[in-house]
Design brief:
The complex is a heterodimer of chains A (399) and B (305). In chain A, 75% of the residues lie in helices and 0% in strands. Chain A has 18 helices and no strands. Chain A has helices at residues 10-35, 41-47, 49-62, 70-94, 99-124, 130-137, 145-174, 176-181, 186-204, 213-227, 231-256, 265-283, 289-313, 321-329, 341-362, 367-370, 379-382, 385-398. Chain B has 13 helices and no strands. Chain B has helices at 3-9, 11-33, 37-58, 63-88, 92-113, 123-128, 148-151, 157-174, 176-184, 186-191, 196-235, 241-269, 278-296. In chain B, helix 4 packs antiparallel against helix 5 and helix 4 crosses helix 11 (196-235). The radius of gyration of chain B is 20 Å and the shape is globular. Classes of the chains: A mainly alpha (399), B mainly alpha (305). Chains A and B meet through helix 4, helix 5, helix 6, helix 10 and helix 12 of A and helix 3, helix 4, helix 5, helix 6 and helix 11 of B.
């Protein structure tokens, strides 16, 4: 027991719920940025929140408050992130710099400015700033009910807007010109997507922190992409993975908190999501490591089988150990290397296919016809019976 | 200000800042031209878990083992990005995002849970470095610059960075032709028989070397900023690669020295008592320089306009 000996308290449920809703919203929002090949723009947006966060704090203190009102901090961070986004767009469209340089430049200089302001705050009034540097990496230790509610409401809003816009966003991501031709306002859709990213960042400040929130926007969509080629499925899968990462990490964080009270929640959420990614990378059907290894082996078997049968047809003995084992296992040859009846007919068929192919290859007119075949499988899969009969007649004429 | 105060307290950090800035800006020129600017971002994030792991293995804050750990982590990240790209056939930017955020999160978690957090290693230090604390106690004034006994007491980061910078300059001169050829026209370089993949990997490794050496002294913010901002600003000043590199060196030097001075003395000028983060200020100044060149730079326009 030990680690897992905790009760599902109200607070744990609160964190799980907040992080889960946040994960769903981030997964859905991130999908658009990912399909639009702009995943790392989210990184610039989230880093650019820091100066606004500090500015909001300083302004609130200057106005006589404690500076800890979440609304003020969030408003400040939204403003500076929007400025950062404008800067990226300016550098990209008005200068010759490419988008990646613009992202990196804005990310680092805004964050640098934020750090300067953070140290200024630390000097300004010791103690009161304690909350601010927790927003870098997230923390649930001090999460209040209002915070969780605010996160959940914000994330739910983001999710709903994403749901409404997702068709337009997918269209824009896949074919900008087609979307424009349909009468969609592409710049507006892009702006809406970035507003959603910003909203996710701001909502996630408290739990995930601004340095790692980008992971929650990137990892679930990339993981979902491993499972499906269809945008219509990537959205919900990414949302589900994000939600599961958020919820599970809330639980893990609570489970470990008896051992380590200062666990940075942001890091846990990211690592749980990365766990989903790694598992998917191994087992996903189309793009996974196991699947492609299996495809490779299957291809290898086909090549060996065909080469082995052709060799048998010409009366050679099979010496290559893998081919011999393969043909034997599939019942084409006996243990002593002699062809079975089944092997005989398969070998004849392979040889006949090879002769047909050789004939087709020798006539340039058939090039397009030939392109239907992969050079390896049974010819009857690529050509109709009539076509094969036609080839056979030509073959006989030729010989 | 007198030399007796400036030389021990401000000269070493300024020099270290300048050396780190130039060491990052040089490979940064090529990263920006190759549209690989965010590799610098990725590398400077993954350095963290490397350093923490090195600390956990050796249980000491030994500079060389940390450099080794950070270098290994950078190499691991580059290989991972390449492998995942090949297996999954997904856009490389997103994969970079997955790999570096995951490794960074791992670093943060290890850091918080290891005893490292009670030593001088912590996340804030990783982000902001400790430029201000790199002082030269043995110095008594300008004369100490010629005194071998006092010189032996220089912060070890200074000679280490100087060595790294020298190595980068030598590599840059040695591989100038293949590097520029493959940067501007990869197809042509390949047809000449140049190993373009090896050149590309070599560039990333040099960037990693610069990042890793600079990281300990100045933190990851400066590393990212210096990879990108001076080179990007220089690109808006000139069409010629040679002069672009000189401009970037100038901008890097200016950012580091001006940023340090502003952070150290700026708050005093406006009546505050304490200085602010030098690393943050240097990054902000480099961003400001880029903003100025983006508005006034002679070669700022996109090629099509």
């Amino acid at each position: 027991m030990g680690i897992m000996a905790f009760t599902l308290t109200y607070n744990v449920a609160l964190v799980m719920f907040g992080a889960g809703v946040l994960g769903v919203a981030a997964g859905v929002t991130g999908t658009f940025m990912f399909l639009r090949k702009r995943a790392l723009l989210s990184d610039a947006i989230s880093h650019a929140t820091l100066p606004g966060l500090c500015g909001g704090f300083m302004l609130m203190v200057a106005l006589g408050g404690t500076g800890r009102a979440l609304e003020g901090l969030l408003l400040g961070s939204a403003i500076s992130a929007a400025l950062g986004l404008l800067a990226v767009n300016f550098l990209k469209s008005r200068t010759r710099l490419s988008e990646d340089a613009a992202i990196g430049a804005v990310l680092s200089s805004f964050f640098g400015l934020g750090v300067v302001m953070l140290t200024l705050i630390q000097n300004m009034s010791a103690g009161r700033q304690a909350g601010l540097d927790q927003l870098l990496l997230g923390s649930t230790a001090a999460m209040l009910r209002e915070d969780a509610e605010m996160i959940a409401i914000g994330a739910a809003l983001v999710f709903m807007v994403g749901l409404v816009l997702h068709r337009a966003m997918t269209l824009t991501a896949f074919d900008e010109n087609f979307a424009r031709a349909l009468g969609l306002n592409v710049p507006l859709i892009d702006a809406a997507a970035m507003a959603l990213v910003l909203a996710v960042t701001v909502a996630g400040l408290k739990i995930v922190g601004l340095i790692l929130i980008v992971a929650l926007l990137i990892i679930p969509p990339v993981t979902a992409r491993l499972w499906s080629n269809r945008a219509a499925y990537i959205w919900p899968i990414a949302g589900a993975i994000g939600g599961a990462s958020g919820g599970a990490s809330g639980l893990i964080g609570a489970g470990l908190s008896s051992l380590a009270p200062d666990l940075p929640t942001g890091a846990i959420i990211v690592l749980v999501a990365a766990g989903f990614f790694l598992i998917s990378l191994l087992v996903a059907p189309a793009r996974g490591v196991l699947a492609s290894a299996m495809r490779h082996r299957k291809f290898q078997r086909r090549v060996h089988r065909r080469q082995g049968l052709l060799a048998l047809a010409q009366g050679y003995r099979i010496l290559e150990p893998y081919t011999r084992k393969l043909l034997q296992r599939e019942g084409y040859v006996r243990a002593d290397g002699v062809m079975t009846e089944r092997g005989q007919s398969a070998a004849t068929a392979a040889q006949r296919d090879e002769a047909r192919l050789a004939y087709l290859r020798s006539k340039p007119d058939y090039a397009e016809f030939l392109s239907r075949h992969d050079g390896l499988s049974d010819l009857s899969r690529a050509f109709t019976r009539d076509e094969l009969a036609h080839i056979d007649i030509r073959l006989e004429d030729a010989s | 200000m007198s030399g007796a105060e400036f030389v021990p307290l401000s000269l070493p950090p300024i020099l270290i800042g300048i050396l780190a800035a130039i060491a990052c800006a040089l490979p940064g020129n090529f990263l920006v031209l190759r549209k690989q600017a965010l590799i610098g971002d990725a590398i400077s994030h993954v350095v963290l878990p490397g350093i923490v792991l090195a600390f956990l293995v050796t249980q000491a804050l030994d500079a060389w083992s940390m450099l080794l750990g950070a270098g290994a982590a950078a190499l691991f990240a580059v290989v991972m990005i390449d492998v995942i790209k090949r297996v999954s056939r997904i856009e490389v930017g997103a994969i970079m995002g997955v790999v570096f955020t995951t490794l960074f999160a791992l670093g943060v978690l290890l850091l918080e849970q290891s005893s490292a957090s009670s030593v001088h290693l912590d996340v804030e230090h990783a982000l902001m470095g400790n430029l201000e604390s790199l002082i030269w106690l043995e110095a008594r004034g300008w004369a100490s610059l010629l005194d071998p006994v006092a010189l032996a007491g220089l912060p070890p980061e200074l000679p280490r960075l100087a060595l790294t910078l020298a190595l980068i300059i030598v590599l840059l001169i040695l591989f100038w032709r293949p590097l520029t050829l493959s940067t501007f026209d990869e197809g042509y370089a390949e047809s000449l028989g140049l190993p373009v993949r090896a050149i590309s990997l070599g560039l990333v490794m040099v960037a990693a070397l610069a990042a890793v050496t600079a990281f300990d002294a100045v933190g990851s913010i400066i590393v990212i900023a210096m990879f990108i901002c001076p080179a990007a600003a220089a690109r808006l000043m000139t069409d010629r690669l040679r002069s672009q590199i000189w401009w970037s060196v100038g901008f890097a030097t200016l950012s580091a020295s001006l940023g340090y001075v502003l952070a150290g003395y700026g708050p005093l000028w406006i009546g505050l008592e304490n200085s602010v983060s030098a690393a943050g200020m240097i990054a902000a100044v480099s961003g400001l320089i880029l903003a100025l060149t983006a508005v006034f730079g002679p070669k700022r326009r996109p090629a099509t306009a």
